[in-house]
Structure prediction request, 92 residues.
Amino acid sequence: MSYSPMIAATTTSAPKSIQQQVLRIISKRKAIKSKRLRISSSLSRELGFDTVDVVDIILELERNFHITIPDEVPLATVGDFVSYVASHAKAA
Prediction:
């Protein structure tokens, strides 16, 4: 199969373009190949992201999608970021 496991494992209803942009931003932060990213991947446990990395990702997502991500929003996995952006960036 030529499908990427990342896309095949997608359980969110996010449009592919939003999902791809979010994955690109996350993978760029630590130069992780997007093939390693799964919707269920934990940023801290599996990918080694620290708090500063997560804040930088949030800031870049806010800039790119013209949204605000409040501090209290639980964002632990790649899917959490994709879902939040997809549900709040409809007008973008």
